Amino acid sequence: MLALVRYTFALRPVWAVLLALLVGSGLILLAGVSPFAAYGELFKGAFLDYWGLAGTLVKTSPILLAGLAVILPLRAGLLNIGAEGQIYMGALFSAMAALLLPEMHPAIHIPVCILAGALGGGLWGLIPGYLKAYHGMNEVILTLLLNFIAINIVSYVAGGPMMQAGAPYPYSEEISQDLWLPWILPSTDAHAGVIFGVLLALIMFLVLRYSTVGFALDTIGKNATAARYAGIPVKRYVVGVMFAAGALGGLAGTFEVLGLKYRLYHHFSPGYGFDGIVVAFLATVNPLLAPLAAFFLAGLKAGALVMQRAVGLESTVIEAIKGLVIIFVAASLGLRYDAQKWAARLMRRRKRLDDELGDTFQARTRGEGR
Amino acid sequence: MIEFLSNPQAITDFLSTSLRLSIPIIFAAVGGVISERSGVFNISLEGCIIGGAFGAALGAYLLGTPVAGLLLGVFVAMMAGLLLAGLAVGLSINQLVAGIAINILMLGLTSYLARLILGADATSTLPGFHPIAIPGLSAIPILGPVFFNQDVLTYLMYLLVPLSWWVIYKTPWGLSLRAVGDYPVAADSAGISVPRVRLFAVLISCAMAGLGGCYLVLSQVFVFTEHMSAGKGFIALAALILGRWNPIGALLACLFFGFSDALQLRLQFNSPDVPYQLFSMVPFVASFLALVFLSGKVRPPAAIGIRYERGGK
User: Fold this and answer.
1) In this predicted structure, what is the pLDDT of residue A254?
2) Could B83 and A327 be called an inter-chain contact, meaning their C-beta atoms sit closer than 8 Å?
3) Neighboring chain B residues of A155 at a CB cutoff of 8 Å
4) For B290, which of A11, A34, B35, B117 is 20 to 30 Å away at the CA?
5) Domain boundaries, chain A
């Protein structure tokens, strides 16, 4: 029985998501649409249809990588709200590597583009990391402001120096077809970015679980002062972890360019960086669960448009439901599992049942447990 | 430039624009000061602004009077505040997470409900507040029309900023507020209810940010557009750090941001051949650089962001 309670507790993000969808159905009812029809179309469109599944996988790639970019620093107690900006900088650097570098063999050029994207995002994470570590500034506000700056920089570049001549709105030239990422589902947009994402999630899980780096990060996250006394170079770790997080965000943008858009567009990310925050909490800050959480969230996003076409419900309702999901999940994580309390509660219940059934086994404690 | 400086009307217009651009951030930043002084990060200022703007549009649209809009806007923002207090103070969830969740919820909810309720009428002009010149004061050359030919909400802001300062530093409740934010254990043992002070602080804070949203709709553009808060809540957060968690300091920081925003608009208008993105990032770059170079050694309220749980059962 206690085990059952424990599993119910361990699964509380799942209950929270279901509860959020239930509350969300109230919002759907407001529009006079049946929630069953809406959710049915949503999930059918996102997961049960070949093209829909491909669309979901396309969105899973950036959302997963952004989620990892939030999870990694969160282990050290740092909240990276700047994944959105890191995505933009990653896309910018990789597009520049793809378009401006001299011609070379694709086997060299593709890794160069990917590394350039990681570097661009990484530098954008390094700035707040450095200011946090060495000047004690709040990383939340810094990463937030850097988002807006990065979005504007990309708008400027895509609409100015790198803009394709005669383009109707800001985008760059198309990158060479040799540099396109391979597809994973034939004749769809689903590209290999999501594979990279899952691999990185796996690597991150192993590193955090089994290496001293993971131990150091967890120690810093739990008690930075204790970590310092234990000889962990806290400042260097803070800078390093923000660089790595930025690089992950940068990869999210890189794969958008190399795998899907093949150009640098302005405003190409519809808030994937912020979805990364939702992923981090849905996955309870565990990189192994991040792919699942990202897949679910991507499905919500991809299915929203199908739903809008099928039942005429505004797709913005999904944005509101996403907010509900993160609120309920966060609230559920606030409830802590207290083994002793539950053991005591179950024991009381058993005694009461024993009393009612006239079992004399618990006679000594009769009446005490009420 | 010289031509601009020798034209009093142009200077008046420019300063007036600066003031109008800073007012929503002032409301939000001063609100943020109150919440953060009690030890609660209020990163949901952005969500409160958009909630206030939506409520204002809805009230003005349904009842046809800006006063109804004002009341509904503040109410919506306070509901967001209640949610934040419930999550961050009641359930002791990480305050930043709760704030981000509320931002996402408010942005989505207002976009959805706006399409649902306002629908095709979303672009029609709503009733709003119009400038009222204060006799005498508004006749002062150059500065008179800037400060004293404004609408009701601006005059409300003139009252609320000194009032917040007075409440925080000169009243018993303000003392409790600061005590709770700096050393909740001591406040608790002195008989102050930490959760209750934090609840009220968050509610007031969100109500003020909501006023900022009301100002956007009822005094500035007279329509509601999705995501119209456009990062103002985050600039307000930067402003309150720059203003050292003091309402007057926050006011000055916001005026600086409003000024830089007006400047970029003017430059954008005057030099159409320079890409506009270079100008539109000016307020954010200014906030960032100001934080990095001007704030020096910041000392936030000592217990900010830390959940308070009574020890010893």
Assistant:
1) 95
2) yes
3) 277
4) B35
5) 1-31+314-331, 39-311, 339-370
